[in-house]
Amino acid sequence: MMKRVLLTRIFPERAAEMLSNAGFAVTQWQEDRPMLKEELIQMTQDHDAILCTLTDTIDKAFMDACPRLEVISQFAVGYDNIDVATATLKGIPVGYTPDVLTEATADVAFGLMINASRNMFFMHKQIIAGQWGYFRPKAHLGMELKNKTLGILGMGRIGTAMARRCRGAYNMSVIYHNRNRNESAEKELNARYVDFDTLLAESDVLSVHCALTRDTRGIFNKASFGKMKHTALFINTARGGVHNETDLIEALERGVIWGAGLDVTNPEPMLPENPLLQMEHVAVLPHIGSATSEARNAMANLAAENIIRFFRNREMHSCVNPECL
Fold first, then answer.
1. In 129-257, where does DSSP find H-type helix?
2. Active-site residue among 9, 47, 287, 296?
3. Catalytic: which of 9, 47, 239, 243?
4. How is domain 4-100+293-324 classified at the architecture level of CATH?
5. Residue 320: its pLDDT value, please?
6. Which of 268, 294, 312, 315 is catalytic?
7. What does CATH list as the number for 102-284?
8. Tally of CB atoms within 10 A around 2
9. Is 33 a catalytic residue?
10. Is residue 268 among the annotated active site residues?
11. pLDDT digits (tens, 9 = 90+) for 228-265
């Protein structure tokens, strides 16, 4: 019997094309909005595979209600929306799309750093508001990045790509904290492994590239910001849940840290009245780290390929829980 695959978004066309050409029956959600949880369950119940993304809740209740489901393929590098432990108990492999969005996401982190350091988003809004006034030598001053210290939490593919940009463009010294040492980054970038408190204390720019886990959820809170330099710039392109947004707002308002660049917020989407959007030293984007044609097409390829490989050979290019294969 032909296997049925549900696509929960309007993904790049090649995902559906690859699956159809491989002999699968493809159902693609057609509305320009996320599926409600009830809709997601109802549609998945008569499908064998699902190609989903970060805002789809794939929890125990969902999997219990969809016993036909054999494989989950995530259109993202993160997978904190999926109850991987339950999937593993049920023997359901979870695919994801690492590597292919590394450069696009690192570009956004690098761009946020530059924009926040020179108040670019804020100054652009000043023009729109008709407040481009006379020259004031001490007004709206930013900071230069050359020879500063870059701290990385999560020296994986994206963290390394960000460090490479900062080292090459601004001769920044690189320190990092990871669960494990990254010896190749140490060799290539002269990066120095430090503990978390040292990362907080020594970073002029602290860029977050870790996964959202039990250990990292809310790790940047009032206590953490209090250990950072008052001149520090906080960049988060990983997951909004890594920082406590109330504590971040307070740290910026009180001058505990200097500025922030965010591609992820907590919660998402951010409310338009959020005070971060009006702060001078803050740049915020609506989670567009992977938003290039090249990255999204490559993600579609990999997400579809994970499903095809699973049903053909019980293998995947990239799997969170390979013990299920």
1. 157-170, 183-189, 196-202, 222-226, 245-253
2. 287
3. 239
4. 3-Layer(aba) Sandwich (3.40)
5. 97
6. 268
7. 3.40.50.720
8. 8
9. no
10. yes
11. 999 999 999 999 999 999 999 999 999 999 999 999 99
